[in-house]
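As the next step, I selected for study one protein, both as residues and as discrete backbone shape codes, as given directly below:
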Amino acid sequence: MNRLLLAAYPKSYRSRQGKELLTCLAEAYPGRAWPPPREVVALARAGVQARARATVDDTTGPWWLDGIHLTALVLAALALVPYLQDVWHWALRIDPGQHAIAFHFSGWYPWAGGPGPTRLLPYGLLPLVGLIALLRGKPWIALPAAAAMIWAGATSHGRTLFGDEGKRGLSYYGLGAPITARDLALSGALCAACAVLALCPPSRLRRRSYRWLAPVVLAMFVAGGLHIISVSPAFQRGLFALEAAALIAAWVATAATGDHRWLIPVAAVAIVRTQAIIVQPDAFMQSFPDMVVLILLVAPLPALAITAQRRQAQALPE
């Protein structure tokens, strides 16, 4: 199981020092599949720092372009999260029955029974296509998918392509107000980021392995198999833990390198979610007071900026 910890490190590090690290762990903790939790946290932190340094050392493209690329990936994943169950059911031709996610006439396809009109495709297929294309460094494929998200959210009801899903139904839930597909801030920001990336030479974009889709497939399996919907407490707790882990990783990477690229996706998510709270104050989840949520969204921005400035100041004397 110690090999799973190596996944936190970049490939170059694993090829050079992976065996040495595994040997040290086996000698320090004989007979244990995992080291103590404190050691796990330390290894994960060191892995994030090593990946961050490898990213900064890669001069394929400027830091701001990589930041926009990360922003597009994060926004596509953010748009996909509420539809994990729906896409899983559609892909495997499963009739969710009473477990359909909380959309008007949601979950009903031509092969499934139920009241109301059928729809041909799940709305979540659009951010999924965009996410896969962005992972492979092909924004010209993600751009039409993002534009289709804008079209689906802006057009009138009654279409059978996506049905009413994503228009009247609930979408992404965070600590703040829900973001529906009719709120074009998320899809608009994703489309703008994809447009910027599409104008750049493909050689300047980072291409990531298909292995990064493994967590997405696992999340679809969990959401579809266990019928975990976006309004359930389990979904909320899991999403909150995931976002907190992502912010901690961004802080560790910024502190290790002094680079500002991780500030861009954090700022984009904060702006999109803050906009939803301001526009839909009555739809607030009431899990925390409004001001507390706004502070939680905005506070990471100056924290990351200050961390980057301090790291750069420390690097000058060196």
About this structure: The first helix runs from residue 2 to 5. The two ends are 38 Å apart (CA to CA). Confidence is low (pLDDT under 50) at residues 166-173. The chain has 13 helices and no strands.
